[in-house]
């Protein structure tokens, strides 16, 4: 079974985001970029499936600008076999990403697509569900555990409001990874070297005949209202007194 | 312009998130229908009918809908969509699961986690863990929206809308419900509670979390939350997680105990009315958002807090 893993290049999760003064967006110049953390988890899960013999090949795909090749390389260094970059400098919304991924799925015919539950830049949490819809495949989102039942089904435990839910989905299916699914490895130096020789195919959205024109026009990006830090209190008694008399919340 | 709100409910009543989403819907239209999906959910539909300003309630039931399986939900909603200009869902984990599936079936780009509705096409939503807000104008004829409930007021009672049954297959042939582990608790729901007490990695073990955080929450009639670090380490169940990728809360009072205040955590609680932080590191970033900060070891501060609250008759 082939496993497809879509990975997105995003601002590193440790970077403090700054809104541009002209409100046109956030400042990405000279900012550290990394693989979306949830996509690292998805890649790790796919590589583990391959190591266990459950998957035969792990293919990673990224949609984005030329430097997204580095993100694909990172996944190859973790153990994925080959990559595909659908190169564009335009903003690609989840709906358009899902349409491109659908075209890739039709070419590659994977038995399973594992992706992140959410990209930490746009915070949409939508692409996996949209891809499942377009393919008419079952979906198991926010996965904290995936158990394959042979090549025909998977039991997926999901993090939901109120606890955990386990679904059995027939394959092919879309699974989106939550943080607790696994802890991604650091690529070793030899594997980083090896990854340099693994193939990355480069295509354009036009090659798949997909219109990626955004449906949402961003008119401005602003800073949220700043929260002022308050006071440091001296004692618990002082705290309780203030919560009661000053803040009126007790 | 008519709007459909997909209810969040527990079969017997609609949750507060639904009431808040109805308020958001009122910014778009006066013609608001509420769709209740579930199994044995008639009481929830009756409760939805009593929400002020609701035109009618639609009820669809099946075993798969009872588990809110995304494929089943989508199959019911997509044919109904022709009657509506917008479909609003509270951004709960269930809503986040099925709403994008509906959007893609309708060839619409979802507008996620809306916190402000400026007009029928223009919305504000947080990005980058709430470190920026974007204003977007949608060119889609139909809008599929998830609403961040914490920023809207709950709609009141006083309606008497009719309940209509929607006959729909509502099954999901490629997905089978296997089981669930539900965290049982008599405490208020995290998303709706007036007071939230959250514990972080400092607690060090599940036993300590239960010994320190939970009695304090119970004394205050509060819900219990946690940082991702506490959840990852198994000190607290996953659905306690507050943050960018967990629950977003905005109670009157949020107490962060032994939580450093990473941006991912702040994204889930910084709209709380009053924030209290107890942390032994005076430089912890949580103090930059806390209205009241106490630099102290929780091991002494929390027992003292329990005593002081007892003196107030709590
Ligand atoms: C993609 C992604 C998504 C994430 N999403 C979330 C999310 O939704 N929610 C979330 O919370 N995190 C999230 N995180 C994790 C986040 O980055 C932090 O790692 C996490 O919030 C830290 O939890 P903490 O504050 O409990 O632990 P720490 O950062 O370890 O802080 C513990 C604090 O306890 C204090 N302390 C220690 N002992 C005591 C004591 N005896 N008394 C008082 N204070 C004490 C310390 O001074 C310290 O400040 C996410 C991370 C990633 C990469
Ligand atoms: N441009 C992209 N390239 C590759 N994968 C993507 C892209 N955008 C989103 N994804 C995938 O979809 C997931 C959810 O993203 P989102 O819906 O934007 O929050 C991510 O974790 C990725 O796995």
Description of the molecule:
Chain A is of the alpha/beta class and 250 residues long. Chain A has one domain (2-247): Rossmann fold (3-Layer(aba) Sandwich), CATH 3.40.50.620. Helix content of chain A is 27%, strand content 30%. Chain A has six helices and 13 strands. In chain A, the strands form two sheets. Chain A has a nine-stranded mixed β-sheet, sandwiched between helices. In chain A, strands 2-3 form a two-stranded antiparallel ribbon. The longest helix of chain A is centred in the first third of the chain and has 15 residues, at 37-51. Chain A is globular, with a radius of gyration of 21 Å. The mean pLDDT of chain A is 96. With 314 residues, chain B is an alpha/beta fold. Chain B is built from nine helices and 16 strands. In chain B, the strands form three sheets. In chain B, strands 5-9-4-1-2-3-10 form a seven-stranded parallel β-sheet, with helices on both faces. In chain B, helix 1 links the parallel strand 1 and strand 2 (31-38). In chain B, helix 4 (70-80) crosses helix 5 and helix 6 packs parallel to helix 9 (298-311). Chain B is globular, with a radius of gyration of 21 Å. The mean pLDDT of chain B is 96. Chains A and B meet through helix 3, helix 4, strand 7, strand 8 and strand 9 of A and helix 4, helix 5, strand 5, strand 7 and strand 8 of B. Strand 9 of chain A pairs antiparallel with strand 11 (175-182) of chain B, so a sheet runs across the interface. The site of adenosine monophosphate has 22 residues of chain A, from helix 1, strand 4, helix 3, strand 6 and helix 4.
């Amino acid at each position: 079974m082939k496993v497809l893993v879509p990975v997105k290049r995003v601002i590193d999760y440790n970077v403090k985001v700054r809104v541009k003064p002209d409100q046109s967006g956030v400042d990405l110049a000279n900012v550290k970029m990394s693989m979306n953390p949830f996509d690292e988890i998805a890649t790790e899960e796919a590589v583990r499936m391959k190591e266990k013999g459950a998957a035969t090949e792990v293919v990673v795909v990224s949609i984005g600008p030329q430097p997204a090749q580095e993100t694909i390389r990172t996944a190859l260094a973790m153990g994925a076999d080959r990559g595909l970059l659908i190169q564009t400098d335009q903003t690609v919304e989840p709906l358009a990403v899902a349409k491109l991924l659908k075209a890739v799925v039709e070419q590659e015919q994977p038995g399973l697509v594992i992706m992140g539950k959410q990209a930490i830049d746009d915070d949409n949490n939508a692409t996996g569900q949209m891809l499942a819809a377009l393919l008419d495949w079952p979906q198991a989102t926010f996965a904290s555990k995936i158990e394959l039942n042979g090549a025909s089904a998977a039991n997926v435990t999901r993090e939901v409001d109120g606890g955990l839910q386990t679904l059995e989905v027939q394959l092919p299916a879309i699974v989106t990874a939550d943080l607790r699914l696994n802890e991604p490895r650091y690529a070793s130096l030899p594997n980083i070297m090896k990854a340099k020789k693994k193939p990355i195919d480069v295509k354009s959205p036009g090659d798949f005949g997909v219109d990626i024109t955004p449906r949402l026009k961003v008119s401005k990006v602003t800073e949220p209202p700043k929260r002022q830090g308050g006071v440091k209190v001296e004692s618990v008694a002082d705290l309780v007194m203030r919560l009661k008399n000053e803040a009126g919340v007790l | 312009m008519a709007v459909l709100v997909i209810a969040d409910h527990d079969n017997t009543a609609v949750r507060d998130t639904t009431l808040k989403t109805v308020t958001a819907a009122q910014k778009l239209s006066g013609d608001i229908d509420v769709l209740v999906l579930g199994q044995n959910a008639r009481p929830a539909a009756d409760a939805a009918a009593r929400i002020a300003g609701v035109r009618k309630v639609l009820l669809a039931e099946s075993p798969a809908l009872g588990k809110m399986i995304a494929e089943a939900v989508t199959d019911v909603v997509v044919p109904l969509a022709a009657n509506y200009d917008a479909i609003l869902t509270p951004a709960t984990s269930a809503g986040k699961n099925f709403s994008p599936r509906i959007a893609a079936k309708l060839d619409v780009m979802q507008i996620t986690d809306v916190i402000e509705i400026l007009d029928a096409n223009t919305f504000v939503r947080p990005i980058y863990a709430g470190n920026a807000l974007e204003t977007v104008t949608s060119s889609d004829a139909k809008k599929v929206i998830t609403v961040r409930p914490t920023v809207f007021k709950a709609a009141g009672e006083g309606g008497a809308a009719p309940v209509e049954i929607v006959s729909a297959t509502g099954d999901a042939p490629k997905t089978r419900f296997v089981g669930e582990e539900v965290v049982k608790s008599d405490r208020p729901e995290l998303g709706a509670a007036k007071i939230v007490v959250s514990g972080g990695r400092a607690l060090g073990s599940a036993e300590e979390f239960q010994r320190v955080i939970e009695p304090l929450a119970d004394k205050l009639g509060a819900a219990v939350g946690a940082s991702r670090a506490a959840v990852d380490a198994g000190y607290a169940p996953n659905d306690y997680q507050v943050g960018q990728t967990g629950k977003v809360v905005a109670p009157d009072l949020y107490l962060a105990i032994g939580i450093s205040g990473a941006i991912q955590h702040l994204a889930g609680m910084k709209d709380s009315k009053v924030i209290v932080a107890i942390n032994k590191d005076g430089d912890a970033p949580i103090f930059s958002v806390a209205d009241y900060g106490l630099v102290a070891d929780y091991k002494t501060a929390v027992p003292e807090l329990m005593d002081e609250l007892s003196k107030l008759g709590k």
